[in-house]
Write a structure and sequence with these properties.
The chain is of the alpha+beta class. It has a domain of 128 residues. The chain is built from 6 helices and 8 strands. Strand 1 and strand 2 form a beta hairpin. Helix 4 packs across helix 5. The longest helix has 15 residues. It is globular and about 50 Å long.
């Protein structure tokens, strides 16, 4: 049985093609309302309504979706990444976080980002706060309903250059969910608290 060769495609006008591409991009970015609702899931409830929220516009660029009035900045789920993950951190950590995002956008890998930020801190270009909290919440996102379930939050407390000797906190949890220090003695030393996940 003979098959008919495909008809040649007529070139689309550039404005129409551009509009199609933009609509596809926009369809992949969750609504501002959804981003605002879910980004703050990593914040304590009493602080959610007044937190600053960073999220994504229709082009996928990171922007401020809401300017807050308290000390927390919340970051919406990145639509380019698999899975659901949002974070909230103290505003004094923003220069550190923003520098990491800037370097990642330049194509730098994690090891390079760590090294460059360390050099920036040592040179005084980047100032780390004495301490600052970061909460990271993951979950299962139902794309149809928009609901996020099975939420799990882990806690990070940045305390630059801390060590077990200066804090008494071990390098590994002594009990399930107990605190421990990661990257001790460095600019990004932090206390990790990973509560046991529900069974």
């Amino acid at each position: 049985m003979k098959t008919r060769p495909p008809l040649p495609m007529r070139p689309r006008p550039i404005p129409l093609l551009l509009a199609c591409l933009l609509s596809v991009s926009a369809a992949e970015i969750p609504s501002t309302a959804w981003q605002l609702k879910t980004a703050v899931l990593a914040a304590p409830k009493a602080q959610q309504d007044a937190a600053t929220v960073l999220g994504y516009d229709s082009s996928g660029a990171l922007i401020t979706l809401r300017a807050g009035t308290n000390s927390l900045i919340c970051l919406a789920d990145d639509p380019k990444q698999d899975g659901f993950s949002v974070a909230c951190y103290h505003k004094d950590l923003e220069p550190f976080m923003a520098r990491g995002r800037e370097l990642a956008a330049q194509g730098k890998k994690a090891v390079e980002i760590t090294r460059i930020r360390e050099d920036d801190v040592k040179s005084g270009k980047l100032k780390m706060p004495d301490r600052g909290v970061l909460n990271v919440t993951s979950g299962k996102h139902d794309a149809t309903s928009g609901e996020v379930t099975e939420l799990y939050t882990r806690y990070v407390v940045y305390i630059p250059y801390a060590t077990p000797e200066t804090t008494g906190i071990p390098l590994a949890p002594v009990t399930p969910g107990g605190p421990w220090i990661m990257d001790p003695g460095t600019h990004r030393a932090h206390i990790m608290i990973n509560p046991p996940k529900p069974k």
